[in-house]
């Protein structure tokens, strides 16, 4: 009778870090924002989209990733978010293409909401990748010069550069689809969008400070130095 050896079940141990949680939130915010942005919103004289209250959180989380974990870790999160969004968009189009069941009466509404205009998708993804990479790169570059001092300077500096790159690229690609055809209207579109997003980021500085402090404390930041 042959002797059979049994091996115990093995699993890869998880490292105790908040990085995966922050990345998941970062990607979720961007993905949800792309869906909310399909709705136009008018608040007094301000014309914006349905993601205006959520999208700035993506830059807060991007700042946290770059400040706490470095540029390479932030870049990995950005590209992961890009891939997940591509998967979502492809899934939307497949679901729209599939024939609806006889009892399903909302095909037109489903198509209208999730049938994102390809040029808007390209504009959003291009702005996201360029803006977030610029934001993370500038933040880390300033940090290498200032060390742990002047957190406010690198948060604001990276936001200005990142948001400008994001807004400019998005507006240049999306303007023809939205109906913007003149240079003055395009300039207004870029300036208003950039100033609005940057203002929100500045107002959220206390939140960014608090989250960065919370993450650093629980990750044992600086203890190994």
UniProtKB/TrEMBL annotation:
<keyword id="KW-1003">Cell membrane</keyword>
<comment type="similarity">
    <text>Belongs to the vitamin uptake transporter (VUT/ECF) (TC 2.A.88) family. Q precursor transporter subfamily.</text>
</comment>
<keyword id="KW-1133">Transmembrane helix</keyword>
<dbReference type="InterPro" id="IPR003744">
    <property type="entry name" value="YhhQ"/>
</dbReference>
<dbReference type="GO" id="GO:0022857">
    <property type="term" value="F:transmembrane transporter activity"/>
</dbReference>
<feature type="transmembrane region" description="Helical">
    <location>
        <begin position="43"/>
        <end position="65"/>
    </location>
</feature>
<keyword id="KW-0813">Transport</keyword>
<feature type="transmembrane region" description="Helical">
    <location>
        <begin position="77"/>
        <end position="96"/>
    </location>
</feature>
<protein>
    <recommendedName>
        <fullName>Probable queuosine precursor transporter</fullName>
    </recommendedName>
</protein>
<feature type="transmembrane region" description="Helical">
    <location>
        <begin position="152"/>
        <end position="180"/>
    </location>
</feature>
<feature type="transmembrane region" description="Helical">
    <location>
        <begin position="116"/>
        <end position="140"/>
    </location>
</feature>
<comment type="function">
    <text>Involved in the import of queuosine (Q) precursors, required for Q precursor salvage.</text>
</comment>
<dbReference type="GO" id="GO:0005886">
    <property type="term" value="C:plasma membrane"/>
</dbReference>
<feature type="transmembrane region" description="Helical">
    <location>
        <begin position="18"/>
        <end position="37"/>
    </location>
</feature>
<keyword id="KW-0812">Transmembrane</keyword>
<keyword id="KW-0472">Membrane</keyword>
<dbReference type="Pfam" id="PF02592">
    <property type="entry name" value="Vut_1"/>
</dbReference>
<feature type="transmembrane region" description="Helical">
    <location>
        <begin position="186"/>
        <end position="212"/>
    </location>
</feature>
